[in-house]
Amino acid sequence: MRMAKRWRKRLRALVRRDAVDREMDEELAFHMEMETQQNLRAGMSPEEARRRAALAFGGVERFKEEVRDARSLGWVSGASLDLKLGLRMLAKYPGLTLVGGIAMAFAIAVGAATFELVAEVVHPRLPLPDGDRVVGIRILDAEAGRPEERVAGEFLAWRGELRTLDELGAFRGASRNLIVPGGSAEPVAVAEMTASGFRLAGSPPLLGRYLVDADEREGAPPVAVLDHRTWRTRFAGDPGVVGREVRLGGTVHTVVGVMPEDFGFPVSQGMWTPLRLGAREYPPGEGPRLRVFGRLAPGATLDAARAELSTLARRRAADSPETHRHLRPQVQPYARAVLDIHWRIVTGAAYSTNLGVLMFLVLVCANVAALVFARTAARESELVVRTALGASRRRIVLQLFLEALVLGSVAAVVGLAAAGFGLRWGLGAFETVQGEIPFWIDADLEPRTVLYTAVLALLAAGVAGVLPALKITGRGTEARLRQAGGGGGSARFGRLWTGIIMTQVALTAAFVPIVADVGMDTEDIRTADAGFRAEEYLSARLEVDRETVPGVPVEAPPEELDARLRAAYAEMERRLEAEPGVAGVTYAGQMPGAYHPRRPVEVDGPAAPPESEALHRVQAVSVAPDFFDVLGTPVLAGRGFVPGDLAAGQDVVVVNESFVREILGGGNPVGRRFRYPDPVKGDEPRVTAGEPDRWYEIVGVARDVTLTVDPDLPHNAGIYHPAAPGGGVPLRMAVHLRGVPLRMAVHLRGDPEAFAPRLRALAAAVDPTLRLHELRPVADAREAALVTYEFWVRVAGMACAVVLLLSVLGIHSIMAFTVSRRTREIGIRVALGADRRRIVAAVFSRSFRQVALGVGVGVLLLVVLTGGIHSMKMVGLLAASVAVMLGATAVACIVPTRRVLGIQPTEAMRADA
Amino acid sequence: MSPPAPNSPSASSDVLRGTLDLLILKALSLAPMHGWAIGQRLEQLSRESLRVGQGSLYPALQRLEERGWVDSEWKATDQGRRAKYYELTPAGRRALGEEAESWRRYVEMVDLILRTT
After folding, report:
1. For chain A, which ranges sit under pLDDT 50?
2. Are residues A58 and B83, on separate chains, in Cβ contact within 8 Å?
3. Measured between beta carbons, which residues in chain A are less than 8 angstroms from residue B55?
4. Partners of A165 in the β-ladder
5. Residue B5's pLDDT is what?
6. Residue B2 in contact with partner chain A when CB distance is under 8 A
7. Contact at 8 Å (CB) between A472 and A497?
8. SS3 call for A403
């Protein structure tokens, strides 16, 4: 109680200083009055009584100061004075404030955004009630060393038995054709989920209802719940959407509800339908691929859930060892269990990125520190005098720290806003390239990020304020006191600062051309020659639903899927060719311009020497027999494909001009043979073609089209394999083409995008489960590459601008510092009639030499980094870099030079006084 | 920190600051009173030989309040005038006992030395 009262009084003394002072006045007045009355009683005249009382009391103001000093929070008022001083300093040196502030704000923004991303990815927090208690269960197949995802049987067993988990549920993601009557037919990401998922996530629906357990029963009418975005874009936000019927692939569903905008459980999807596992038996390794989730029951811990699951697993393994012996259930935090990410690599990458960004921040702050030091040195006399008047070193360092903290805080606020903005933009760009991101990753800054930013601001203030302060108040202050007041002052712009600034100059000189180069790459991508009239083509990836029976999560055998896809394609081709606007239809494993992976080839007979590796690497792709005809890329030598090439055992290929030039080293390629020594790598089978260890014969050479648009991958050697849509007929092709995305190119007369809706309508009419993914003009294939490039160009461009700005200011600091130190000398020279231009040259010669050295080191660094000067472009970039740095130096010199030119001899005399 | 103001009329009866604190605590141990009354009380208790400079008295009171030994409150005087009254806290009462004890020991020690040499 008393303690609390005491603190309240202290706080009041601090915050309501006026009121407290008034009280003190009142107390003193009372004292004087009593004293006067006593004097009156002693028989004095009223004037005499008052005079004596005042005399007895002494100086009132001095007294009040003493009382204030007795308060233990005196130092805080000192600090608040420093804060005020700090603000005044910001206003007094607007250049430093602006530049230092921008630099710090940029560094803090990058730091905060990186931290936010790292935090969201590595330590995700689910925006759900009790989000940290939501877990996922995965089963590890200990024998195969990989996760077993077909876990429907286990899930159903757990559902009846697990006590440590509530709202146990499961979902699987699927892509479905959403066909809105009177609207379009477009694929939508559907989550087939148990109703428990909605209960666990705890958000009430925006319209209608969400799924309930009864919806999962076999025979229940098919229902669907819409995501907010789907509702807005596909149903135009229709408030009467509940009750409407839509087709999802082969089945008609009734819309029963719409979820609110911030709802995204389980990952990110456009619709929810009930997960119907029915009353079937699912042995391990059969049934749909599921993800299982639940929330720790009240009082249960993660370890308890793990223990319970292990017990269950042991019991199951004892009952049926053949099927369950090797299965190990694992309970993990939800986000970790649901995303297929190599967590160790991601975590490592995230932390190292964060560390790199922190170092960038320190570098930027060190630069700001150099600027602050230059300014602080100019205030040297003030500081020295204060020291003489009894201010402790700690007091002065604190003052400079608080000044920097004011700057850092402003920068932190700006930086946070910029980080939020940048994240929104970055995530948007990422979504464009990669598809939707999980619901728990958003651009809103979390409290922990704000806290981290506060720490960054402190760090920034520490580097930018305390370092210069320690240096300026270091040894020899007293010696300086003797000289202070003279114009000179005696602080040196130490080697450390000069070193920092020159490193900065060197880095800038090396950095600017690199960013310019990436920027030019972006332009190259934009204007790259496709080698055919890419703008006339529309492409889409075709898929059909994998289920045998609509609504039942059991997949058809691959042969059946192939047959369905082939039939759908044939029908599409027939109908499209009847369209007046269509000039031709063909297909390929990958469209020209998009990314084609490379694989090593081994040529039978003479070949060009490979560049660096033991084997040439080429791009291989499967195409339709009429691919070259429809794309209008003539076969220049030998022959093109004929339908007979699709038969088994016909291992013929067509290569492009680049292949002949780069791999064979010229000559007649027809009849030559090659093979792939290695199988296709795990992440590439969806695009590439060709089997390992089989000799392929080249039957023709096609004119070049640019297969992969990427300035970093300039070699265009490519191999075309003939393939039927969906594979199947020749056994070899069947193996290879299963899972190969079928891209159909429709050659149009007119605008390709205008035809897109028609194409969708045709597909829906052919087969409601036929989905058109990535429907876009072929010319847009480069967009994905562009988005990534542009992102980096912008971020690197901004970093570059900040570094350049800092370099300019660093050079400026040195120059300005030099001038202020040599005012007297300059004045004398002027008095002796020296030529001003020669004075400028003399004063700045040392600084110029330092800058030149920095630029030279930077250029050297760049040459080393890029492995030597290869091209005229490189020479041009280097020249541009030197020009930019010279320009920067010139800009940095403007103010100091004017200062030198303006110095009058009288000023020098005064400076020396 | 704040020796009696130089213009205090009885600079001759300066008291050590720690001693002044002790004396104030003692004065307040009888009853809560305002600053002026404390000065009067000390003068009276010392039979007019001690005049505490107000320049020392109020900072001392402030210090004691900071330390939590006294507490203050605005109240009306007998004449109906508003005044700030100081009062001993339990911690102050304990402190008074300890300070008085150590003062006595100090005096005895000085006395002992004076007598033996």
Report:
1. 72-74, 481-490, 728-742, 912-913
2. no
3. 57-58, 62-63, 66
4. A296
5. 40
6. yes
7. no
8. helix
Which strands sit side by side in the sheet containing B70-76, from one edge to the other? B33-34, B82-88, B70-76
The helix/strand count (H/E) of chain B reads as 4, 3
Cα dihedral sign, A500-A382-A395-A478? positive
Q: Are A27 and B53 in contact (CB < 8 Å)?
A: no
> What backbone torsions phi and psi does residue A614 show, to the nearest 5 degrees?
-70, -30
| Segments in A237-301 forming alpha helices (H) | none
The partner residue sitting opposite A35, judged by closest CB among B36, B55, B71, is B36
Tally of CB atoms within 10 A around A267? 18
To 5 degrees, how large is the angle CA A514–CA A357–CA A369?
95
On chain B, the residues whose CB falls within 8 A of the CB of A26 are 82, 84
Q: Among B35, B53, B68, whose Cβ lies nearest the Cβ of A27?
A: B35
Nearest residue to B86 via CA among B108, B63, B102: B63
- How does DSSP classify residue A579? S
Threshold 0.80, pTM exceeds? no
SS3 (DSSP) at B71: strand
DSSP A701-725: EEPP--SB--TT-----EEEEE--T
Of B2, B82, B83, the CB nearest to A66: B2
Distance from CA of B10 to the nearest CA of A (A): 10
Closest chain A residue to B36 measured between Cα atoms? A31
CA distance B35 to chain A (A): 7
Prior bond of A266 cis (ω within 30°): yes
B35 touching A (Cβ < 8 Å): yes
The CA distance from A587 to A196, in Å, is: 43
pLDDT at site A207: 92
CB atoms under 10 Å from CB of A586, counted, come to 21
What the block records as the tokens of A687 is 């695009």
What does the alpha-carbon distance between residue A521 and residue A788 come to, in Å, rounded to a whole number? 12
**pLDDT value at position A686?**
58
ipTM of the complex: 0.80
Count of Cβ atoms closer than 10 Å to residue A624 Cβ: 25
- Tell me if B59 and A70 make a contact (CB, 8 A cut-off): yes
CA pair distance A387, A381, nearest whole angstrom: 10
DSSP letter, residue A809? H
| pLDDT of the residue at A94 | 78
Determine whether the interchain pair A31/B81 forms a contact, defined as Cβ–Cβ distance below 8 Å.
no
* Euclidean distance between CA atoms A619 and A627, whole angstroms: 16
Which amino acid makes up residue B57? L
Residue A475 CB coordination number (10 Å): 7
Distances (CA, A) of A589 to A433, A488, A540, A684, A741: 20, 76, 11, 11, 6
Mutate to test the interface with B, among A5, A6, A68 (most CBs of B within 10 A): A6
Q: What are phi and psi of A721, to 5 degrees?
A: -105, 135
Determine the residue type at A375.
R
d(CA A39, CA A49): 5
**Two structure tokens written together for A251:** 């089945």
Tell me the DSSP string of A597-665. -EEEEEEES--PPPSSSSSEEEEEEEE-TTHHHHHT--EEEE----GGGGSTT--EEEEEHHIIIIII-
CB contact under 8 A, A70 and B63: yes
Note the pLDDT of residue B2. 40
Q: What is the DSSP letter of B102?
A: H
What's the pLDDT at A321? 83
B1 in contact with A, Cβ within 8 Å? yes
> Does residue B32 sit at the A interface (CB-CB below 8 Å)?
no
Name which of A10, A30, A66 is nearest B59 (Cβ-Cβ): A66
pLDDT of res. A389: 65
B81 near A CB under 8 A: yes
For chain A, the C-alpha Rg in angstroms (whole number) is 38
